[in-house]
Design brief:
It is built from eleven helices and 41 strands. By secondary structure, it is α+β, with helices and mostly antiparallel strands. Among the domains are: 357 residues, 3-Layer(aba) Sandwich (Rossmann fold), CATH 3.40.50; 85 residues. The strands form ten sheets. It has an eight-stranded mixed sheet, with helices on both faces.
């Protein structure tokens, strides 16, 4: 047997059977008398005080909750075994795709257990790589991360962003590639932006630092765009965009690869899609020329060939298409190069005189090449059915790199010859995983309204459908995010111990284009919840599992998903892991970048209709007494300034107050970490160890 019931281990080791475990005594969480009036409906918010994350009371509450959580986890007898196995399997060299800057190649590598990936440089693909930047030297505990790096168009400089403790706030630095000298240029107060190089400097997005308020929860408004010239102080940077009358407006400016044109993106909180403008760069003071001046569609430049500007857009094409605009004659309109197909255009690049287009066929990648006029040339041969990323490069490059992965195929790097159309394996993953012992498959099931939804299932070969297999059901369902097949080290404890990983591609994502996305936006959000619930029902009906063996998980918008479905169908699930979730749907727009999500969710302040809809599924506001909720471990981090942790604090407090059963309701608050980006390896291993320990323990199974 791959699993043994925990009662057996309890008898052997003297531990209490989890099915009769003692009820946890939670910290006494104070409540305040705060009531909001939404269009005549009064809504109490007794945990409003938790929104002041700098307050001593909140810090004390976190400390007390963590003490209970880690005390609980410490008693799980196989926790150290899981930690040891994760550490063992994590310890192998990991590589990124190489990219070229000037005369050099760069790539990221982690030797195995390094907290942060190291940036390497080499003269050519056969020469010995050398360390170029090692972020592990930036801090003793590995919590300072090296994020995006961008090469200047002349290949002389490399900008790199640094994030501390997982925050979205960044600092930009510049290093001269040839001399490897870090320049004096240092840019602060940057968020959601990197250096967009142009001539002897770069554009970047900027927010004024808030005064006398929490930097990590302050609402981000009145974004600006500056241009920084190398060798000057940030105080001398030139303001390129600002709108003092509209706090919701944001912009981004960058140049084409050949620096012939400048582009400007414009977005507004609450609006879907973007506006897009351009102008010849030889007259920077010239007025911007509109490419698309209406919201509702996403349109981005891909590349230009002379005055021909290629655009990827979903205007009148929900599954996206590639069009061409003649910059010398914009009145002629757009010309379709790759018209919309019945499969989703997932990405498109213009390299070596060829268009390389990646499509999704039922969420798996297909790659085709075309000439500049959109005439089909060939299909790129892939090693199997899975997910492709990459084909990044400059338009004169003759070879580019891409990665291929699937649930049972660890991510490997391939090199593609643009002229011959031949792919070769460049670097294979060295992870110790016996892929031939496992199988992955895609199934389709019917949701509540009859919509067919794809779901990927991964497990050991020969799985017996006896309704008793532990299942980890994971999804996201929002913001046009696609749930692509991909290998993950963190899932190995589940798979090795005989469990099933299930990932439904629910509505709200981008799997089938913008229509699939919009099918779970705003007043359609319930479709995402229904799709997820139907996935659990399918797994039970087909004999994979039972409600007592299902653990569910999701992060960010996926955390909202978990919070909503356990309120609606708690009897379907035994364990829930809502991570960094959006749990207060009435107030999310008041913190950091939350206002930008109103185009996905709407806002409780907009009108009575959207308020009532949000109120009907908001996780915090729909916890009911008298219901047997699943064993729940909420996870968040103290430096998460994207989905601020107050969401998780208030949700946990409400659930602990109203749920009277014996299943644990815990919160695990990571310190010196954020939404996930830049988290050091050591913290990932600790967090995943605790999650699997909690899941296995409460499913009543123990790794054999």
């Amino acid at each position: 047997m791959k699993f043994i019931y925990i009662i057996v281990l309890s008898i052997i080791l003297g531990h209490v059977n989890i099915n009769s475990q003692e009820k946890i005594k939670y910290p006494e969480t104070k409540k305040v008398d705060v009531v909001d009036n939404y269009f005549g409906t009064k809504v109490a918010d007794p945990y409003r005080w938790m929104e002041d994350m700098d307050s001593p009371d909140v810090k004390k509450w976190i400390e007390e909750e963590n003490k209970i959580t880690f005390g609980y986890l410490d008693k799980i007898p196989f926790r150290e075994k899981i930690r040891a196995r994760l550490t063992e399997v994590w310890n192998y060299p990991k590589y990124s795709r190489p990219f070229k800057a000037g005369n050099y190649y760069f790539f990221f590598k982690n030797n195995g257990l390094q907290n942060q990936y190291v940036l390497y440089i080499q003269k050519d693909l056969d020469s010995e790589p050398e360390v170029f930047l090692d972020p592990n030297t930036f801090s003793e505990d590995g919590t300072v991360a090296l994020l995006n790096v961008n090469a200047s168009n002349d290949g002389k400089y490399l900008s790199y962003s640094v994030s501390k403790s997982g925050s979205d706030w960044r600092e930009i630095n510049v290093i001269e590639i040839e001399s490897r000298k870090v320049l004096s240029d240092h840019i602060t107060n940057v968020k959601f932006s990197d250096a967009n190089w142009f001539k002897d400097g770069f554009f970047y997005d900027y927010y004024d630092a808030p005064k006398d308020v929490n930097l990590l929860s302050h609402k981000n408004e009145f974004q600006k765009v500056y241009y920084h010239k190398l060798g000057t102080d940030q105080s001398q940077d030139v303001l390129m965009f600002e709108d003092k009358t509209n706090p919701k407006l944001s912009s981004d400016i960058w140049s084409s690869e050949d620096e012939k044109y400048l582009f400007k993106y414009a977005g507004e909180t609450g609006q879907e899609g973007n506006k897009l403008y351009f102008k010849p760069s030889d007259n920077i003071d010239k007025e911007w020329i509109p490419i698309i001046e209406e919201y509702g569609f996403s349109t981005w430049p891909v590349q230009n060939e002379g005055s021909k500007i290629f655009l990827n857009t979903n205007k009148n094409a929900p599954k996206y298409k590639l069009v061409m605009l003649n910059a010398d004659d914009i009145s002629s309109g757009w010309k379709d190069i790759l018209p919309e197909k019945d499969i989703t255009l997932d990405g498109v690049k213009y390299i070596g005189g060829k268009i390389i287009a990646t499509y999704m066929v039922d969420v798996t990648s297909r790659v085709y090449t075309y000439d500049i006029n959109g005439n089909f040339i060939s299909e790129v041969t892939l090693p199997g059915i899975g997910t492709v990323n990459g084909f990044d490069g400059r338009k004169e490059d003759k070879q580019v790199f891409y990665t291929f992965t699937s649930f049972v195929y660890p991510g490997s790097v391939y090199i593609y010859d643009v002229e011959t159309g031949i792919s070769k394996l460049f670097r294979k993953s060295e992870v110790k995983f016996k892929s031939d012992e496992y199988e992955e498959k895609e199934v389709f099931y019917s949701s509540k309204d009859g919509t067919k939804v794809p779901m990927f299932l991964v497990h050991k070969k020969g799985l017996v459908l006896d309704g008793n297999n532990p299942v980890y059901l994971y999804s996201y369902g929002g913001f046009n995010v696609t749930m692509n097949p991909g290998f993950s080290i963190s899932r190995l404890p589940l798979l090795e111990y005989g469990g099933v990983f299930a990932m439904p591609c629910i509505r709200g994502g981008g799997e089938y284009g913008e229509e699939w996305h919009k099918a779970a936006m705003l007043f359609n959000k319930q479709n995402a919840f229904d799709d997820f619930i139907a996935a659990a029902e399918y797994l039970i009906k087909e004999g994979y599992t039972s409600p007592q063996k299902i653990a569910i998980a999701g992060g960010s918008n996926g955390g909202l998903l978990i919070g909503a479905v356990v309120n609606q169908r708690p009897e379907l699930f035994k364990v829930a892991i809502p991570a960094v979730g959006v749990m207060d749907m009435l107030r999310f727009q008041k913190f950091t970048i939350g206002a930008a999500w109103t185009r996905e969710y709407g806002s409780s302040e907009d009108n009575e209709e959207i308020f009532k809809y949000l109120y009907s599924y908001s996780p915090i506001h729909n916890i009911k007494e008298g219901i047997n909720y699943p064993a729940t471990m909420v996870t968040t981090a103290d430096h998460d300034d994207r989905v601020v942790p107050l969401h998780s604090f208030k949700y946990t407090a409400a659930l602990q107050e109203r749920y009277k059963g014996n299943n644990p309701v815990l919160i695990r608050v990571e310190t010196k970490a954020g939404h996930g980006s830049g988290k050091p390896t050591s913290k990932w291993i600790e967090e995943i160890t605790d999650e699997w320990s909690f899941v296995f323990y409460n499913l009543g199974v123990v790794p054999n």
